[in-house]
Amino acid sequence: MDVVRFLALEERSVTFMQPLPGFRDFLPGDCAARNYIFARWREVARRYAFVEWDGPPLEATELYKKKSGAEIVDQLFNFTDKGEREVAMRPELTPTLARVIVAHEREFKKPLKWFSIGQFFRYEKQQRGRLREHFQLNCDIIGEANLAADIELVALCIDILRAFGFTEKDFVVRISDRDFWTDFLREKDVSVDRWDELLQTIDKFGREALEKTAQKLGKLADPIFSILKNGGKSQKLDQLVGGLRERGLEDYVAIDVGIVRGLAYYTGIVFEVFDRGGKFRAIAGGGRYDNLIAQLSDSAVSMPALGFAMGDVVVGELMNETAHARQKLENAIANDAKIDIYVVIAKEQRRDDALAEIQRLRDHGYRVDYPLTGEKVGRQFQTAEQLGARVAVLFGDEWPQVKLKDMISGEQQLVSKDDFMSHVESILR
Ligand code: HAM
After folding, report:
1. pLDDT tens-digit map of 111-121
2. How many of the other CB atoms lie within 10 Å of CB of 143?
3. Whole-prediction pTM value?
């Protein structure tokens, strides 16, 4: 094959016969797992009395340039739209939330407790736990400066992971306080305009070569390394842990001042969640961003805020590797896949009568399937079993009676067409 033709073919297969790098196809099993994750997210967020909202998937690029920080701006999927606007697929929700709060602040009683589930896009290097699209659950509390809100938020994050069956042996929430570091930098007389860059360097500790980090930190390297090695103390962090202790959740958290968070807008308490085995990337991350709303509105609206986001990719990976959580997922998916009723059409002459009843059953809300074309009765019962039908209803020579088979007990009964709905109801109740 000549090289040009080969390249042309390769190009073609890359461009449209496969998903783009870092993007996923969701086959039915993948969708079932995704729905399971969303259901747990929604269920626990609602348990904490959070309400659901959403923003648009496309925003002005400027919103992220101003608010997210350099790392995310480098990863933007951005383009100029047909109206010559500079736009970007959303890499995160927080700047949108701040924008929405500035516009609608007066319409809601504070504090707001909002959650959202959506897809996000970052042009990252594809690797384990990091793709170019992912789904996030975002939970944010707006308009509350008290530490009680931070405790509530961390507790919510823990309870969401517990709903998947994870225990304190599977994950840990590493909590930290950016104020700890800004106090330290102030004490060392470091000028405020260098803080951001230094915090980013501390955030990368352990993820880039030690010499490189030391070089960037200059004469602060030794004291910072010593804090990172021996741990830092903060009254606020002790209080936070105390609040979680009262809820019986202390074993799920650890103070770790090495957590600084890469995003530029964080102000106070920050946290990240990791698997205990240290095998995966962060499961979730968040913290306080008390100045973001004021910055975005040129101080027209000023409100404390805090939140976190959890991604579906690492949750999925951790579930796969954690036997009890995986079993819970598999059971839920198997249950969800089951249909209620399979209609067996034993005589093709009865197809129209069967279809009229199928319509009635579906109108009643039952999940019903049947063969679209003629098939042997034995095969139809096999399909009923494979689909997990609770009841099979046979339309054949007995008409206007039908045969009902309880697929668990194997019991069969002949019932008249007029009575069969109430019989089905009593089995499926
Ligand atoms: P983040 O740490 O950038 O925070 O992302 C939160 C979580 O989203 C991560 O811990 C990870 O599970 C998931 N995630 C992020 N990027 C990817 C990726 N490329 N592939 C797969 N999963 C990913 C934020 O986004 C903040 N806006 C969170 C927040 C909400 N802070 C306050 N409120």
Report:
1. 999 999 999 99
2. 17
3. 0.92
